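Reading is simple: each integer encodes one residue's backbone shape. The lines below illustrate:
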Amino acid sequence: MNALVNIQLEAQVIVEQLADRQISEMKQRYNEYQEWVQIASNPVMRRYYEDDSIDEYESIFKFVFMTQYKKYDRELGKYVLPTVYPTDRKEQRGMAYDKGLIFQVTELRDQTRANWEVSYREQFIAGNMIKLNRALAKHLTDEMTASNINVNVGGDGAEVTAVVDNMVFRTFGTLCGGYIQCLHYRYRSSLK
């Protein structure tokens, strides 16, 4: 009995590992930003305050603009990064049409908040568990009996296998996503 619940509990390990992987990649990008800010002319300083502190939100936008926002140069015949950060908001607004770059800005800004990692991890796990549970519920119910539950984690995915009522149950989680959509698994399951 309780095949669905037992397999869900075992498979939750996959989602937790994925959350750790996503947070690790986010921290890596934030560390790249921190290194960029250390260069003297890179950060944007607060304009309307007496202290010479860094305007974190504007500096993050500038970081993504200067390192990721490519425009087509007709003379060179290719896409190039900007060499100068424009002071005109109209020129900066061009980056707003690229959802991937705006996502990077948002992701970096989120990391400036206190305790961001805890709340992000909880939300991430909850969202991915919903998808996993949906894939499991296609074939399993709590009236079934599961045994020999195995979770195999690979480089870009995971697999959960079990014997359910003398049939082999298998679900595959394939790693997907990137900048625009956070890392997640796409699940396929079968009961034969």
About this structure: The longest strand covers residues 167-176.
